[in-house]
Amino acid sequence: MFGGRKEVFKQVENADVSTLIGEGCSFEGNLNLSTATRIDGRVKGNIRSEGMLIIGESGRVEGDIQCTEILIHGTVEGNVDAQRIELRKGATLNGDVRADVFVIEEGAVYNGHCSMGGTTIPETSEIKLPD
């Protein structure tokens, strides 16, 4: 299903992005993004993105991330919810992950719980209390 996705990631990674938080910049607050974004600076807050999100080698995010696709070279301290997540060599992700596809390259660090595929609602059973 995602056979050609690796090539698409390489193209997006090397392409110009619409939004850039550069190295040496810091931002505190929640971000709502609709275009491809690269973060090489620091973001403290939650991120919601409809486009590709790239965390560069010097990038650091402290907060939860919800996006379609994310490519992490830097550090993320928070939970990530995405269709596709890639951790590249040198990346660190400390937080829980929910994804359809989760790729961890050798040399990346991941600490957290992972849930893959569609989420299901657990069936509830009737609980009988003693009289």
Residue windows where pLDDT falls under 50 for at least 5 positions: 8-12, 119-128
* Total number of beta strands: 14
How much helical structure, as a percent, in the residues? Answer: under 10%
Whole-angstrom Rg: 17 Å
- Which band does the percent of strand residues land in? over 45%
Number of domains: 1
Number of helices: 1
Largest sheet: 8 strands, parallel
Instruction: Output the structural class.
Output: mainly beta
Order of helices and strands: HEEEEEEEEEEEEEE
The overall pLDDT, averaged over residues, is 84
What is the approximate shape? Answer: globular
Report the span from N to C terminus: 54 Å
Give a short synopsis of this structure:
This protein has one helix at 5-14; strands at 19-21, 26-28, 31-33, 37-39, 42-44, 47-55, 60-62, 65-72, 75-77, 80-87, 92-94, 97-104, 109-111, 114-116. The chain is mainly beta. It has one domain (5-116).
Spell out the blueprint of helices and strands.
Layout: H1 5-14, E1 19-21, E2 26-28, E3 31-33, E4 37-39, E5 42-44, E6 47-55, E7 60-62, E8 65-72, E9 75-77, E10 80-87, E11 92-94, E12 97-104, E13 109-111, E14 114-116
Parallel strand pairs: 1-4, 2-5, 3-6, 4-6, 5-7, 6-8, 7-9, 8-10, 9-11, 10-12, 11-13, 12-14
Could you characterize what this model shows?
The chain is mostly beta strands and 131 residues long. It has one domain. 8% of the residues lie in helices and 48% in strands. The chain contains 1 helix and 14 strands, in the order αββββββββββββββ. It has one helix at residues 5-14, and strands spanning 19-21, 26-28, 31-33, 37-39, 42-44, 47-55, 60-62, 65-72, 75-77, 80-87, 92-94, 97-104, 109-111, 114-116. The strands form 2 sheets. Strands 1, 3, 4, 6, 8, 10, 12 and 14 form an 8-stranded parallel β-sheet that branches. A 6-stranded parallel β-sheet has the order 2-5-7-9-11-13, with no helix packed on it. The longest helix is centred in the N-terminal third of the chain and has 10 residues, at 5-14. Mean pLDDT is 84; it is low at 8-12 and 119-128.
